[in-house]
Amino acid sequence: MTNNPSDFKLSPETQIIIENLCPGLSMEEAIEFLANMAEFESPPPTIDEFLDKKEYLGHITIYPFWRKQLRIIHPSPYFSPYKSVILSGAIGGGKTTCCLVSMLYELCVFLHRKNPHTHFGFTEGQPLAIALCNASLTLAKDVQLKNFFNMFNNSPFFQAQQQKQAERNIASKGALDLNLPYEIELLAGSVAQQLIGRAIITAMISELNSQKKEGGAQAVNTYIELKNRLFTRFDRGAELPSPGRLYLDSSKKEIGR
Predict the structure, then answer these.
(1) Long-range Cβ contact pairs of 207-213 (< 8 A, separation 24 or more)
(2) How confident is the model at residue 75 (pLDDT cuts 50, 70, 90)?
(3) What distances in angstroms separate CA 131 from CA 26, 42, 59, 85, 210, one per listed residue?
(4) Fewer CB atoms inside 10 A, N or C side of the chain?
């Protein structure tokens, strides 16, 4: 598996943007150039390195099918052709784990930047959130949060990042504060109102088919709020890129549905 973006099918719009930004360069050269412009402090791992090396998530097992999807989502540490990722399938098939692994990879890449607040247009020192949403707050905490922390706490890379933060004498402010550089915290929720006013860098809505609050519009309202937070001008200014993607997963509970 190479990490050359030209090995993956990019949309015509994406190719035009890259060609206009980097005229005369091959796709691989263009991506490397854009990576340098993005001011990375050190080269982030590829998605395969992130999954295989003990330094990152080498302690977990990813089914080959989901590894293939993760390679498509993240063809390069410096580039992804997708803003939103939608996964559907049977209960227990690994959708949630795939989304959480992808979000952790985005967090890893984010932490390799020199000054991500400036690059992505956030106010310096502004708390940034990773949002995990489910049909209820209990489900978000019992399923997504537990799985996230299980992978996060067993990763030497993230432990080292926490140590760097501790050496700055910056203590964790709460149970969902990840105690990482750049004021990154977790946000668990079930309704759109819990997302208002938050600067979100990546987000997930799980079990869309089970979300029936707010007069049946729970999933729609949460999706709209997260989409606004990630991809529009809220807190950041127009046309700025988003640090991560919006992940949606839904289970098929009945055959034929």
Answers:
(1) 207/134, 207/135, 207/139, 207/249, 207/250, 207/251, 208/248, 208/249, 208/250, 209/250, 209/251, 209/253, 210/135, 210/251, 211/134, 211/135, 212/135, 213/135
(2) confident
(3) 36, 26, 24, 15, 18
(4) C
